[in-house]
UniProtKB/TrEMBL annotation:
Pfam families: LMWPc. Its EC number is 1.20.4.1. This is Arsenate reductase. Residues 3-128 form the Phosphotyrosine protein phosphatase I domain. Keywords: Arsenical resistance, Oxidoreductase. GO terms for molecular function: arsenate reductase (glutaredoxin) activity. SUPFAM superfamilies: Phosphotyrosine protein phosphatases I. It is an enzyme of class 1 (oxidoreductase). InterPro entries: Ptyr_pPase, Ptyr_pPase_sf. It comes from the Bacteria.
Amino acid sequence: MKPRVAFICVHNSCRSQMAEALSKLFAGDTFEAYSAGTELRDTINQDAVRIIKNLYNVDMNETQKSKLLKDIPSIDIAVKMGCNVVCPFLPAKYTEDWGLDDPTGKSDEEFIKTAKIIEEKVKDLARRIKNKYPPI
């Protein structure tokens, strides 16, 4: 069984959604990806949706929605996206914090930069899982 990874932040509308989408694209063979937060949003950040569609041809509006922590299954790995406030807590065998700045309200360049960082971190996490680190 593939490990379950949850990308968490408060609003589950931008970074965590991007991480879920890119994980399904680049690491779907290695782990199951989820995203969630402590507050629901009516829609995913539409700048994030547009950038992910332009860069990766993935339409998050069709495949994803804002979810609460209680809406996802139990997980093995929790990845905090980088909260300036208190990050949500989710029980997991392993937790790490990617410390990413929220690009919401910033330029497309900031969204692209964030997407590329997330892509690299997702690929690195998949490599580490294949190499049994973190040990879950």
